[in-house]
Specification:
alpha+beta, six-stranded antiparallel beta sheet, 20 helices, 14 strands, 11% strand, elongated, Protein O-mannosyl-transferase 1, EC 2.4.1.109
């Protein structure tokens, strides 16, 4: 029974030494001297502030993309024990001792190092030789720009890692498709494709380009499967459902999970939450939550409220009034009603308080029990401090003459009666009997007499002149002119009024509310709002010293100075390996020309290469040329500040194409022994030049050793490169 113990247990493993060597070299090239320089390098000043906010659990919004990449950088800080206390305000600032520089830069460096073996594996899965695969890996290994970008707290190396992982996973899955469908390894690589795609998109939206490419390739492969008569309808349906699960459902679920973790971690109020809605702000600890926590939920007749405009950009503001009146005549000669000004004020103020009044009653307090206001009810809005009624009439607004002026009514005993009735319309109602709720309800106020809608027009136009204290204009906009978020308001602060006397009511308006009712948003509501802000919130793009156009990238006519030593000539630049970039461009051109030639010849029934070689050529081009195109061409349509590092994902695919073209030329065009020998000699000389250029630019890739002025001038191979030289 125990006979198996007579012999030793033996485990046999196959180790690809090429792969192991590439992993080691990749790690050395990216991790060597990782803590140098111990100073803020270029965009570390941008990403570092988000890492600090993660450490302090303070909410933020970054319009550059989803949160997964930021969370990975923050993970490095967490593993290094970073407390978040560092002021990220200047490139070149020395890191204090509490900042774990090596740990913060570790994950991008590991991602960059692993791109080397991934490149090798991708070419192997594309059915090219191990020599070609090794060449692709070495080109990635010796590419100065990829090394520079992966050695700092930046996201491009992480993005490229997940992009390459997604491509490799899909290729492995596709190759298993032929002989072991629905096996464990088949499922593993299919699911990993979806996971890697979602991670790429979660790091930067640029990852969406490769995701779309792989979906297109998967769709094309499935289209070919439909024509396979050996597959039953049930089998085809199973394949379709498996791909839908792995390539669509799981990526969407993972994308949502990134935001779930992000929102779970960042539960404290901060400077960025002001652009969010009142409901979102109230869900965060501190900030608005301290003011609004426990407010009455249902707005009733007699409620004291502040009304925040939902649009919230370019700044948040609240419906406001003060004792000053509109000037009798404006600068352009137009007349006004000379009524009390109503504006939208971007700061919290006691003059932002209004009282919801029942037009049929005189009392300004909440009855017992409270009578809630519902969708469609008619109300009057009484300004809390001046007790004048919100009003609009057929008088042109000061800055928007095609809209109606909004004021608080003053009875001058002239032929201009008050028109102060407003119908409450709850925009996000579930039924026509919905109650108007604090924070949660988004409402429009429709003027009963003129059907004009209360609107904060100052978001679109300019602020009021000095007589209006530069506050934002509020107008009555005709409903027929369309719907806009500037017409929607929500109750932010709310209390049940108890004082009928004006002096007592003023004291009440200055005091905080203290009731205990929570208004937490669901995750999906918070996700939807945050996602919309990320997609629509755009910082003003300004010209940057190192910004460039997409056309500059192909020939590397630009560079970026990442860091300069404060006293010596040591510096770090984002500069590529000139030989590699040129070779990649030539390879792409040769591929397209050869493909066109082959297509024309095949149309004439002339087959220059075997069918198997043609299919290999096409599939490799679909991945490499397709990957280059989808990651490069969209930048010509983008209206944003562009930098050289935006080209790195496209460049990576282009580099993979170089050994593919070289192997194809060697196998199918160099047919004599002499030509093959000459071609091999040229390849040795060419690769030696790649290594030589890598070594030449290593001082500005790693930042050491420090170079003299003469040596720095010698590195300026193009007049458009900005190599920093100190004045003597």
């Amino acid at each position: 029974m125990l006979g198996f113990l007579k012999n030793p247990v033996v485990i046999t493993a196959e180790i690809n030494m090429n792969l192991m060597a590439l992993i080691v070299m990749g790690l050395i090239s990216r991790l060597w001297g990782l803590s140098y320089p111990r100073a803020v390098v270029f965009d570390e000043v941008y990403y570092g502030q988000f890492v600090s906010l993660y450490m302090k659990r303070i909410f933020f919004v970054d319009d550059s993309g989803p949160p997964f990449g930021h969370m990975l950088l923050a993970l490095g800080g967490y593993l290094g024990g970073f407390d978040g206390n560092f002021l990220w305000n200047r490139i070149g600032a020395e890191y204090s001792m509490n900042v774990p520089v090596w740990s913060l830069r570790l994950l991008p460096a590991l991602a960059g190092a692993l791109c080397v073996p991934l490149a090798y594996q991708i070419l192997v899965e594309l059915q090219f030789s191990h020599c070609a695969a090794l060449g692709a890996a070495l080109l990635i290994l010796l590419e100065n720009s990829l090394i520079t970008q992966s050695r700092f707290m930046l996201l491009e190396s992480i993005l490229i890692f997940f992009i390459l992982l997604a491509v490799l996973s899909y290729l492995k899955f596709y190759n298993l498709q032929r002989h072991s469908s629905f096996s464990g390894s088949w499922w593993f690589w299919l699911l990993l494709t979806g996971v890697a795609c979602s991670c790429a998109v979660g790091v930067k939206y640029m990852g969406l380009f490769t995701y779309m490419l792989l979906l297109a390739v998967a769709g094309l492969h499935f289209w070919h499967m439909i024509g396979d008569q050996n597959l039953s309808n049930v089998s085809l349906m199973c394949h379709f459902l498996a791909r839908g699960l792995a390539l669509i459902i799981i990526p969407v679920a993972m994308y949502l999970s990134f935001f779930y973790v992000h929102l779970t971690l960042l539960y404290r109020s901060g400077p960025h939450d002001q652009i969010m809605t009142s409901a979102f702000q109230a869900s965060l600890e501190g900030g608005l939550a301290r003011i609004t926590q426990g407010q009455p939920l249902e707005v009733a007749y007699g409620s004291q409220i502040t009304l925040r405009n939902v649009l919230g950009k370019p700044m948040q503001c609240w419906l406001h009034s003060h004792k000053n009146t509109y000037p009798i005549r404006y600068e352009n000669g137009r007349g006004s009603s000379h009524q009390q000004q109503v504006t939208c004020y971007p700061f919290k103020d006691v003059n932002n308080w209004w009282i919801v009044k029942d037009p049929g009653m005189q009392q300004l307090v909440v009855s017992n029990p409270p009578r809630p206001v519902r969708h469609g009810h008619i109300v009057q809005l009484v300004h809390g401090i001046t007790t004048r009624y919100l009003n609009t009439h057929d008088v042109a607004a000061p800055l928007s003459p095609h809209s109606q002026e909004v004021s608080c009514y003053i009875d001058y005993n002239i032929s201009m009666p008050a028109q102060n009735l407003w119908r409450v319309e709850i925009v996000n109602r579930e039924s026509d009997t919905d109650v108007w709720k604090t924070i949660l309800s988004e409402v429009r106020f429709v003027h009963v007499n003129t059907s004009a809608v209360l609107k904060a027009s100052g978001f679109i136009g300019a602020s009021l002149p000095e007589w209006g204290y530069r506050q934002l204009e509020v107008v009555g906009e005709k409903l027929s002119k369309g719907y806009h978020q500037s017409m929607v308001w929500n109750v932010e602060e709310h209390r049940y009024g108890k004082s009928q006397e004006q002096k007592e009511r003023e004291v009440e308006l200055h005091s905080p509310t203290q009731m205990d009712i929570s208004k937490n948003l669901s995750f999906m509501a918070k996700f939807t709002e945050l996602q919309w802000k990320i997609l629509t919130l755009k910082n003003e793009d300004t010209e940057h010293k190192y910004s460039s156009s997409a056309l500059d990238w192909i020939t590397m006519d630009t560079n970026i100075a990442y860091w300069l030593h404060p006293t010596s000539g040591a510096q770090i630049h984002l500069l590529g390996n000139v030989v590699t970039w040129t070779s990649a461009n030539v390879a792409a051109l040769v591929y397209m020309c050869l493909s066109l030639w082959y297509l024309i010849r095949r149309r004439r029934k002339i087959y220059d290469i075997p069918e198997e070689a043609w299919q290999l050529w096409v599939s490799a081009g679909g991945i490499c040329v397709g990957g280059w195109a989808v990651n490069y061409l969209p930048f010509f349509l983008m209206e944003k500040t562009l930098f050289l590092y935006h080209y790195l994902p496209a460049l990576t695919f282009q580099i993979l194409l170089v050994p593919i073209v070289l192997q194809h030329l060697s196998d199918h065009l160099c047919r004599s022994l002499l030509l093959k020998s000459m071609f091999s000699a040229l390849m040795v000389a060419w690769f030696s030049s790649v290594y030589l250029v890598y070594c030449t630019f290593s001082p500005v890739t790693y930042g050491e050793p420090s170079l003299s002025v003469t040596e720095l001038k010698d590195l300026r191979w193009k007049d458009s490169w900005n190599i920093l030289i100190r004045k003597q």
